[in-house]
Input
Amino acid sequence: MSELFKAIQQNRDSILKEWLDSIRAASRRRDLIDDRELEVQTSEVVAAIVDAPAGTTLQDFGAPGWQPLKDLLSSLSASRAALGFTPSETALFVLSLKPALFTIVREQAGNHAEQLFLGVTTVNDFVDRLALHTTDSFISARNQVIARQQEEMLELSTPVVTLWDGIVALPLIGTLDSARTQVVMESLLQAIVQTNSRFAIIDITGVPTVDTLVAQHLLKTITAARLMGAECILSGIRPQIAQTIVHLGINLSDITTKARLADAFKVALERTGRSVTRTTKPAGSVATATREL
Amino acid sequence: MERIPILRMGNFLLVTIQVDMHDKLALTLQDDLTNRIAEVGAKGVLIDISSLEIVDSFIGRTLANIASMARVLDAETVVVGMQPAVAITLVELGMSLPGIHTALNVESGMEFLRQIVPDYREKDDDGDYTED
Output
């Protein structure tokens, strides 16, 4: 079969030309990639195939000789993922190489049906593996993006805001799972230490459902804050959630709960010896000021 | 033998834990502290654990025990400066230390003690509360 490989090496230019033709026929994504770049990419791939070190065979795709080709295809599919190609379009780019190679096989085999069949199978197998490798790297590149976004989302989703000296608030948005609650708990406790806050308001307006697990996580956070010397106020419990909490038999009686974040804030201000008063009559907009007692 | 110093400030006792607590040290502290409370008639105990990085269930239980013993001896206990990691560990161990008062730092801890100990007065030179 090394004769086939030799024939491929000798016909590099015709392969390149035929490949480009079939890509242009198959692909409708000229908007995403221009012809010149496509030519550069195809010639790079063909070069990587043709310049494979001696002893590397088409049958053995796992051979170290194909490593440069694999790396090249990985980087190609990563860049295509970034450009917005679909996985099938990316695979099609590699699969379009088949007709060009089949031409070589036919020329070489002539009338020998057996040799033709053998050549076609080999080429088919080789190109399929190339395409699979491309798809694999395409998906792993996507997965990396997803994992990074998840991490970023986790960080973004737990902001601790300072409402006043010694009062911090944690507005929770989205479903709470164990991993997220751990981050929430840690960032709240860190913020309590850093800002030296005696009061922490946990607002769960944005939490869609509260089950036993979420409630347990909340209770743990509140207990941990209490152990550090801070008091937690729970706010933003929606009627639905209030019903669920009672039905589940969760005991929140030791915890101060308020309907709105504003009410919780008012309680915290009162307990730190402050009160909210209106200083002037509302002229268009309501003006309020916080006065220290 | 290693001991944790207990300082007296008027009616209050001040304990600052600045070394790694091991079981024996915790028991020694429990012994010393109860003795001191009885000796000076302390009304409040402040335990600063801001330097404590590692706790286990035994240390947690000893802290709870110290607080209960102090209450029997007519003194309130406040634990101040617990690190987030320590708090999380205790909660995960299922120890919410329900009988213990907590505060963020020594300053707010002392303020809290002054509030809950109603007749906070320094003893006279002759060791009683009378005016003469």
